[in-house]
Amino acid sequence: MDDNDDEEARGLLEAFRVQNEGAVAIVSEKDGQPYVRDDQTHYWNDALVDRVAAMKDRIIEHALEEGYDALFLIDSDLLIHANTVKRLFHTGKDIISNIFWTKWQKEAVELPQVWMTDEYSFIRNSRQTPLADEEASRQTQAFLKQMRKPGVYEVGGLGACTLISRAAMEKGVRFRRLPNVSFWGEDRHFCIRAAALGFGLYVDTRYPAYHIYRDSDLDGAVRYIRSKSPDPNPGITISLCMIVRNEEEALERCLLSVEGVADEIIIVDTGSTDRTKEIAGRFTGRIYDFDWVDDFAAARNYAFGKATESYIMWLDADDVVEEPCGFKWIGVVHEYLEVAGNIVQRDIAITHKKDKAYTDRNLQIYRRRLEQGEEFLPRDMYYFANELNDHGWFEEAADQYEKFLATKQGWIEDQIAACLKLADCCARLYERDRQLRSLFRTMEYDRPRADCCCRLGALFMSENRLQEAIYWYETATTLGEPPQSGALIDHASWTWLPHLQLCVCYDKLGQYKKAYEYNERALDYQPDHPSMLYNKRYLEEQLKERAGG
Which positions fall inside the Glycosyltransferase 2-like domain (predicted)? Predict the structure, then answer.
């Protein structure tokens, strides 16, 4: 449905139709009052809601007339994973939405487009005994936490990004207003009809969509697209194919030398009478018998025929893969070179300019190794947790960080970073107390770090506990230089960020002189920062008004 009043947008739709000739139908909907939005929110009225409901119902009628098995309704400001529709269809649900999260007001917290009851409530309230505020808050946090956990869940209401089966459409689900219901928004009326007709409502949280609700969300949209794009060079996988016979003396040494190199090991035995197959069985289950026909090529071709990975490597049992130069790479992912000798540090900057899309390649490597029963070393526990965290598996990541920290092993900087990242996961899971404990836990390993102090300040500021926030931001400004340990440094936290946040705190307290002073200190680090320049003008006006008054 083309409801654009922007000719450029209309042109993009037409170009899309031409590129997909025969698969796209555009119906123009020009008449009606304009739809208004800004960087704060979107502005709706009854006429606009009724108009959108009518358009959606027309799409349902079209789907029925054309004999489609299902209908996927998606708003034009949503970005989805390439497999979203296929994944939703395979759940077998008649009505299911793919989750997305939005700050409905610019300064508010992110909330999902699904809910449990009424117009937009996340709890099931009893009509006879309303929940106490504390219990209502607990249930709300539990619902939001569940929506962050990948899975398929039943809900009471949903909107946008929704797959509807033909059965549901034929039975009468529609968006038009119910005359005896005053709920706001066409999605509520759709959900009430669905429930009345006996259809459950479900949400799939496995791959959240991205909502471009305001122009300031566009940068995040670019990152989302890159993160979901397939990696054209995802790395190689290797099948090691060997033909063996009576190699009990040499085989173990050979296979030990290729641990971590081959993704699968294929052993073709041509008639061993010793322990060769028993030894091979310690490394792989892919062991095959081949009747020897005095033809090495035939045996190797048979072994190659069993390979399933993208590259094939072959060795004889008396071959050994040796590390050169005495240096050794360690780690299946985020590998590092183990070296010894004098270490000299220099101020040389290497800028990593990644021009390929981010993928979940590393995460899948870890998952495969976990499924194979591998016990991770502490360093791999930490990096596995990082991959889970980076891809939105926050609950699983939090558990993995805890496992890593429980080993009490690993580089001290990784342990501190694990506490900080664990705190970030807890914030996404709405576990505030655990988040706070994780931040304070960093101080078990070393003196306070500025990035931890700034996180503590941000937590207390979000709760309007400004004095506590001020304490931690001021602490961050007194810590001096960051430790030269070779770890990554959050330079903002060690320089301008705590001063800028102190400016905000003191502004909220009406102490404009102090706010101005801290903003000036922040400007010393970032003289062209637009927010700081705005603060400067704003605070000068406030101080001038008070001086004049």
Answer: 239-354
Question: What average pLDDT does range 460-488 have in this prediction?
Answer: 92
DSSP conformation class of 121: B
Cβ(419)–Cβ(451) below 8 Å: no
Q: What's the pLDDT score for residue 209?
A: 93
**Exposure of 405 in the CB half-sphere (CA atoms within 13 A):** 22
Q: How far, in Å, CA of 120 to CA of 109, rounded?
A: 15
Looking at beta carbons, which pairs linking 293-300 to residues 24 or more positions away fall under 8 Å?
296/243, 299/243, 299/268, 299/270, 300/241, 300/243
Contact 536, 526 (CB under 8 A): no
User: Residues with Cβ < 8 Å from 272, sequence gap 6 or more?
Assistant: 244, 245, 246, 247, 248
What one-character DSSP code corresponds to residue 33? P
C-alpha span between 28 and 47 (Å, rounded): 18
**H/E run at residue 524:** helix 512-525
The gap from C-alpha 232 to its chain's centroid, in whole angstroms, comes to 20
| Cα–Cα distance, 147 to 212 (Å, whole number) | 19
End-to-end CA distance of the chain: 57
For 501-530, how does the pLDDT look when each residue is reduced to its tens digit (9 = 90+)? 999 999 999 999 999 999 999 999 999 999
- How far apart are the C-alpha atoms of 438 and 422, rounded to whole Å? 6
Where does the pLDDT of residue 337 fall: very low under 50, low under 70, confident under 90, or very high at 90 and above? low
Q: How far apart are CA 404 and CA 381, in angstroms?
A: 6
pTM higher than 0.85 for the full model?
no
> At residue 232, does pLDDT exceed 60?
no
Q: Which of 438, 478, 490 is nearest to 459 (CA)?
A: 438
Q: Taking all residues of the chain, what is their mean pLDDT, rounded to a whole number?
A: 86
- Alpha carbons 247 and 237: distance in angstroms, whole number: 26
Residue found under tokens 């009326």? 189
Residue 402, CA distances (Å) to 174, 381, 394 in order: 47, 9, 12
- Rounded CA separation 514/492 (Å): 21
Token pair 């390649």 in the structure block, residue: 361
- How many CB atoms within 10 Å of residue 464? 8
For residue 72, what are the β-bridge partners? 163
Strands 287-289 and 162-165: unpaired
DSSP strand pairing (201-211 vs 152-155): antiparallel
C-alpha distances in Å from residue 65, one per residue of 17, 20, 54, 94, 380: 21, 21, 16, 19, 55
Q: DSSP readout, 173-227?
A: ---SPPTT---SSHHHHHHHHHHHTT--EEEEEEEEEEE--SGGGHHHHHHHHHH
453 touches 479 (CB < 8 A): yes
Q: Which two tokens stand for residue 75?
A: 């708003």
Q: Is the pLDDT of residue 375 over 70?
A: yes
